[in-house]
Amino acid sequence: MTTSTRPPLLMLGRTHGNRSAVTCALKCDNACAAPTPNESTEPTFADVASQALLSRRRLLLAGGTLAAGAALTVGPTALEPAAASGRPPATRTPPAARPGGPLRFDPIASVPDDVDAVTVPAGFGWRPVIRWGDPLFADSPDFDPEHPDADAQERQFGYNNDYTDVIVTDPRGRRALLCCNHEYTNRAIMFPPTSSVAAEAEVLRTLMAAHGFSVVQLERRGRGKPWRYRRGARRNRRITATTVFRLDGPAAGSELLRTAADPSGTRVHGTLGNCSGGTTPWGTVLSGEENFNGYFRADPQAVGSKRYGLTDSPSSYGWEQIDPRFDARSADHANEPHRFGWIVEIDPTDPSSTPRKHTALGRFKHEGANVRVDRENRVVAYLGDDEKFDYLYKFVARDRYRPGRSKAARRHNLGLLSEGDLYVARFEGTRRPGNDNLGTGRWLPLVEDGRSAVEGMSVEEVLVFTRLAADRLGATPMDRCEDVEPSRETGKVYVVCTNNSDRGVKTGKPGADAANPRDANKNGHIIELTETGGAADAQTFAWDLFMVCGDTDQAGTYFAGWDGPVAPISCPDNVAFDSENNLWIATDGQPGSIGRNDGLFRVPLDGPERGHLTQFLAVPVEAETCGPVIHDRDGSVFVAVQHPGEDGDWADQHSAFPDYVPAGARPAPGEWRGPRPAIIQVTRESR
Ligand code: FEO
Ligand code: CA
Ligand code: CA
């Protein structure tokens, strides 16, 4: 028997939205080809559709500047505590933006989508820090894709790195912890075809071991020197699809979370579909379980199946063939899908700690979670549900952040995401007097003061079926919220909506509205949200469109009022800030929308250059830019290069990233020339 190199039910040969067909199938289980899970038909604010944009354009044409002043006057500046990555506490007002900041570079030109290379600015170089399959422990086997081995993969760096942080852990800046999740796998390009059921089962086990999370210690000789990972370091850790997690918070132990194997409803094996994330001020890492539905067969009539995209078809991954818990059609495993779709929290400093899944933050296709602590030490986490026409959420912790490095403070802070209230956003197109460019909105309570705020649903039901609860409240269906990240300098929150080609196109679905201003939105946009009074737990907010992405030749693009040249950009996804409060934007989907490789861009948020977008790097063919980590004062940028050469096959690899053979050289006999997802570091090579 020859087993196909592709799982059997992938719908290849067509693309959905901006991604390749392979990415659609593996990453999100062909979500775009299925009925949109959110069948709610919310008011569309049609009366204000696109008016915010049009109003801005008129102002621009009239010579007005739409820079900071127009939209940045709500509430005092919030001061934020230090990040775990060693940044000093912010004790100042937003910096006057310096063009370029500490990391000055000559922008690169947009790169065509058939280029298999990492492109960086002149004077910069790049190198992989760690690649898929690199051994983490002293006894880890070396990378050998010709011989898939689950035990080996359990002790090697995982596949398809997404959220990434580099947390410096010593005052001299010579040690750091690289924390990174592994979203999904691509069997067709990772391993050769097999010829027996037993051999294919080992491949499936290896793929399970390539999911999850890695903690890897990095070292360097001094500031400005390149980082290298240390094999066998004490804190190195792999978390996979079988590692034990503890469910905590109000829904832990609920009947909705119990299975035959876990009657306590508190112990889950593994984490799946981890997309973006965030690093907390207390030094842990959060990661969002996103497209978990694609791993299960389930009863399509069960509560929530339709809304969460669960079907009774064989899964794309086929894991139900080797582990019955992935077949949720049986009573023993019916609740297993409920145990995924959470925000997970991992303590990278303690390899023996049990990672947790926080039920208080709700269950949906979590993109990630980013925590803000305001000047009163109130703690919130911003959460996006990355599905067409799904919602933006905010969690407000019951307890306040306790500053300091004492054990008591740390213990307290580790519990902050376990109890609190959950809200979903409703954007409104009403105008503020005297400022016709500003929208308002409110956070609609799902759980408030620890009690359900949704009629007819218990707290446990609201948290396990959060989408169903939010549907009842009139939340605003968004254009796929990806990263939602607050600025530590200003407290303003940047809501990244990557795209939604169905808006205003699919029968019965909402058309353009103020916060999602374009029908058939192929290129995405970014919203700038300001909590009323600057308070993290505010129940209302103001918002403005910060960027409406696309090729700059296209009508309707908008770059925060900047009217000079900018880089073309499409499908914004993950974001990060540098030390000067510039926003760095990573993209996912440019090949399908504007025919360019995905990239990393920088844009000032304040000052005269607000909106002046430039491109810093481009990733190789068929790859997505993830991670970004900006250590600009160190002259260093990290990105996670995910799914390079995604559309290839074992016998027809499309990318050799990152181990490119120099021009004219030949691979050594038996040397594997396929792609390896990797974390790369970009540094200045010359001045
Ligand atoms: Fe995994 Fe929302 O991108
Ligand atoms: Ca993403
Ligand atoms: Ca981010």
UniProtKB/TrEMBL annotation:
Pfam families: PhoX. Residues 80-103 are annotated as: Disordered. Residues 80-102 have a biased composition (Low complexity). Coiled coil: none annotated. This is Phosphatase. It comes from Microlunatus kandeliicorticis.
